[in-house]
Write a structure and sequence with these properties.
Number of helices: 8
Bound molecules: S-adenosyl-L-homocysteine
Strand order of the largest sheet: 3-2-1-4-5-7-6
Length: 212
């Protein structure tokens, strides 16, 4: 696991390595009950899930101790690998499914992630709560909804000038066109995955959305 991270420009200390190993064990233990990752992915948790999530740390917006919401976190992606690699970040993991909420709470406790919070509920409902509304600098998300829908879900959670980062696959152009139609002033930047020496994430894009 360590070599793959180092190959992608990410050094792990022994504590982080231990946290990722415990995380992998817990995913495998809970997967049949909580449906966290596809069965086919059980053998490639590190590359497909940990590393893909962790590569977000290369973006400048995570240098500061910002407050982040992982919308539709599921098994903790991308929020938990991000938090493990950058412990100064304040991360809230939101998911509507009860078993996923239970898993995430257990994960946060067992990895002793200080400054990580779990909220179990629907984004549309939770965003109305006083402690959630306009509370975040950045919303991150992977595999939850098309960009236009995601922007609608994310907007109420964000402070003024908040930003959204979505991990997406290849067919992102149509989603961006629909987003621009909904929010004509939106600013969208697409980052290919940085440091992708192994070609693992050749098809993945990080879509960075502002002013929406
Ligand atoms: N981000 C994770 C999970 C993707 S699956 C990953 O990349 O592996 C999508 C997740 O979003 C599911 O766990 C689902 O329960 C959650 N979800 C979908 N719509 C939601 C909503 N409106 N509010 C909260 N969670 C939602």
């Amino acid at each position: 696991m360590e070599k793959l991270f180092v190959d992608h420009g990410l050094a792990l200390d022994s504590h982080q390595r231990q946290q990722l190993e415990t995380y992998r064990d817990l995913l495998l233990q809970w997967n049949s009950k909580a449906n966290l990752i596809s069965k086919n992915d059980e053998s490639r948790i590190v590359s497909r899930h940990f590393l893909e999530s962790a590569l977000l740390v290369h973006l400048d917006c995570f240098l500061r101790p910002v407050r982040i919401l992982d919308l539709g976190s599921g098994g903790g992606f991308p929020g938990v690998p991000l938090k493990i690699l950058r412990p100064h970040l304040n991360v809230t993991l939101l998911d509507s499914k009860r078993w996923k909420g239970l898993f995430l709470r257990s994960l946060v406790a067992q990895l002793v992630l200080e400054g990580a919070t779990v909220v179990c509920g629907r984004a549309e409902v939770e965003a109305e709560r006083a402690d959630q509304k306009k509370a975040y600098d950045v919303v991150v998300s992977r595999a939850v909804a098309p960009l236009a829908r995601l922007a609608e879900l994310a907007r109420p959670f964000l402070k003024a000038h908040g930003q959204m980062l979505a991990i997406k696959g290849q067919r992102v152009e149509d989603e961006i066109a629909a987003l621009v139609e909904l929010c004509p002033n939106v600013r969208v930047e697409i980052h290919a995955f940085p440091h992708d020496r192994a070609g693992l994430f050749a098809k993945q894009r990080i879509v960075h959305v502002e002013h929406f």
